[in-house]
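Lab notebook, page 48
Experiment: co-folding of the full assembly
Goal: obtain a model of how the components sit together before planning crosslinking
Operator: M.T.
Materials (sequences as entered):
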Amino acid sequence: MHRHIVPDIVSDQQQFSPVSAGMSVRAAAILMADKRIGAVMVTEGTRLVGIFSERDVLNRVVAKGLDPDSTMVGAVMTPDPVTLGPSATAEEALELMQSRGFRHLPVVDGDRIIAICSIRDFFAAVNEELAEDLKQRDEIMFGTGYGA
Amino acid sequence: MHRHIVPDIVSDQQQFSPVSAGMSVRAAAILMADKRIGAVMVTEGTRLVGIFSERDVLNRVVAKGLDPDSTMVGAVMTPDPVTLGPSATAEEALELMQSRGFRHLPVVDGDRIIAICSIRDFFAAVNEELAEDLKQRDEIMFGTGYGA
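Observation: model returned without errors.
Model output:
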């Protein structure tokens, strides 16, 4: 069975912690460390304006010698990120992310922000799906008890 | 067919860029950004002593307010990381990493360091393997031309 982003990967009620473009990199890093997340969505009001990740902290702040206290998230985020809708499948999400080199993907339903997913979420879902399909074939080919 | 770390995920001749424990976080970050990698192995001579990742830059340096220029990698790395040998399978590596929450895994052959792999490398290999096994079953069940 195909996994869809909602409800198989995330629920529609998922909690997420957006940050504003005017937040300092330091404050965003503290929030990300606290929540144990590798990326956050950047919002203006209810509008998604960017995505900010631990890779950005490494590449665009620390490696560039910028000061995390005086550098705002808006200056080093990836603006206008590509998004997917809740009914997209895990395969579609994974294909998009692999082809574009994304590691995080915001999920939005029209103007409504639902969640942010990591490529590992989708890999795990696709993996599970393939393993189940394989088990099903083996049950058909070898009988239900095979390998049990 | 089962994928093994060497040669299916990495070659035995893979280039990697270890850093020393006495290198500053800033210098390591510049190297990681330059090589476009999320984690580096930390070595003392030819011995693996730790692993340092972009997550460590976020959690242990920026979120903690440490100065990347005066903080040494050795102070914020994960010491004595778990490793796997080159003949381990992608499934074994993936299981280990998922159960322990690792995102990077050094591959060593006895005392010899071979490479560092990310969980995405293993997810991709296991996925490919499952998809191939599934295709094989479908060819047996439905004939070679099915779906072509």
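Interpretation: The longest helix of chain B spans residues 119-142.
Next step: discuss with group before ordering constructs.
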